[in-house]
Amino acid sequence: MAILTLPPLIRPRLVLKKVIDNTTEVQSSVVTQKLDTRKFTLVMASVITLNLLVIAGINILMTQDAFTLQRLKLERNTALDKKDAIQNRVNQLNSPTNLAKVASKMGMAPAAKIGYLNYSQLSDAATP
Length: 128
Description:
0% strand
């Protein structure tokens, strides 16, 4: 049994030696060829330049939006201030003392007796 297991241990070593010999030949042929890196450098430089331009464009758009947002906030605050001023003026005009002054200027006088409406009498008077 031990003899049958021996040959598989020897065979992979021979195959490995052949693979190592083939790779050294391939490496020596690759080393003899001169590599041209100018195209790669040009492509990488153009990619980096394009990325920088895109980032600059995004930055410009965000800055413009920030200025627009600032202007809109200022307009909103101005409108809210005007609304508050109008509301204060309406509250002043609707105050009870101011309403009493306006009523007396129009010739209105306080009622001596309060008169209530009786709907049952009104419905009888409406039917002949």
